[in-house]
Amino acid sequence: MKKLLDNICQAIGETPMVRLSRITKHYGVEGNIFAKLEYLNPGFSKKDRIALQIIEEAEASGKLVPGQTVVELTSGNTGTGLAIVCRAKGYPFIACMSEGNSMERARMMRALGAEVVIVKQKESSKKGQVSGEDLALVEEEVQRIVKEKNAFRADQFKLKGSINAHKYHTAVEMWEQCDGKIDVFVDIVGSGGTFAGCAEKLKEYNPSIRCYIVEPEAAAIYAGKPTLNEGRHKIQGCGYNMILPLIDETLIDGCVQVTDDEAIDAARNLAKLEGTFVGFSSGANVAAAIKLLRDKEKGKNIVLSLNDSGLKYLSTDLFE
């Protein structure tokens, strides 16, 4: 157990790992799913880790100076993590988010002292389904604010801290909690830092560990599949149908596609069967693991993260 903490940043990381034995029994598969409960971070998501890593690396390099404004594009989770870290360290923070994301996130960021700028989606877009094109509109607004405020851009899609947070911490914790008994790692990619960092470190421990990228069926660009429904889907914060600069493709051993319905079914069953109340992307990770245990990874030990809390999706149809 951690001793008395001096600030909330010290509460980030060292999350529990749970064997999802009821899930594997329910779906009738052979093998194990070990889930890292990342929604137990202070901001209720794994993105707290990269927020802290990016800010601390920027401080150490001198790219971020006391009192400077921090700005980032976010689906809400990275923004929440940055709101927490920036509040603890004394930096003003501005989050830019598409209106297609659930509004619980915006409310949480504002409660934590962040300024939140909501960017309209394309006219053809649907709320709850944020595409790469919608993300590009948010990026334009971020660049404008960075220039106007002379702000530090906490760029989760490009900065090495997005990888390092998971290489030096998440993956190490996974390995130690599982006593090294890991055959497979799966991760649905948003900015790509979790996959890149965990895959790199886990393969350092054991090169035979197979690392799979999980993608929405509608936007399976790494699998080379045709784009469906203009790449739109319900799995928020992931699957933007674009190649991600953080990911070294030599780390990818395969790709698994998941439908909206499969992700939703798994998320609902995680709540009902395991008591883990999580969002769409966590459901997608588990749905992908189930597919692998039914086929090429039958009987193996699969590790993954449960990325964020279901509390962030109460305005969606996830838990109707």
Task: Write the topology of this structure.
Blueprint lengths: L16 E3 L1 H7 L4 E6 L9 H15 L8 E4 L3 H13 L3 E6 L4 H9 L3 E5 L12 H18 L2 E2 L7 H17 L6 E5 L4 H13 L4 E7 L37 E5 L1 H15 L5 H15 L6 E6 L14
Parallel strand pairs: 2-10, 3-4, 3-6, 4-5, 7-8, 7-10, 8-9
Antiparallel strand pairs: 1-2
Defining key terms:
38% helix; Rossmann fold; alpha/beta; 10 strands; 4-stranded parallel sheet; 320 residues
Description:
This protein is of the alpha/beta class and about 325 residues long. It folds into 2 domains: about 10-45 and about 170-315, 3-Layer(aba) Sandwich (Rossmann fold); about 45-155, Rossmann fold (3-Layer(aba) Sandwich). It contains 9 helices and 10 strands. The strands form 2 sheets. Strands 1-2-10-7-8-9 form a 6-stranded mixed sheet. α1 (about 20-25) packs across α8, α2 (about 45-60) crosses α6 and α8 (about 260-275) packs across α9 (about 280-295). The longest helix has 18 residues, at about 130-150. It is globular, with a radius of gyration of 18 Å.
Structure summary:
The chain has 320 residues and is α/β, with parallel strands linked by helices. The chain has nine helices and ten strands. 55% of the residues are buried.
Report strand order across the widest sheet: 1-2-10-7-8-9
Helix content range of the residues, please? 25-40%
Which structural class do the helices and strands define? alpha/beta
Spans of 5+ residues with little confidence (pLDDT < 50)? none
Give a quick account of the main beta sheet: strands, pairing sense, barrel closure. 6 strands, mixed
**CATH topology call of the largest domain:** Rossmann fold
Question: What count of helical segments does DSSP give?
Answer: 9
| Termini separation | 37 Å
Strand content: 15-25%
Provide the domain count.
2
CATH architecture of the largest domain: 3-Layer(aba) Sandwich
Q: Please write the string of helix (H) and strand (E) elements.
A: EHEHEHEHEHEHEHEEHHE
State the total count of DSSP E strands.
10
Over all CA atoms, what is the radius of gyration? 18 Å
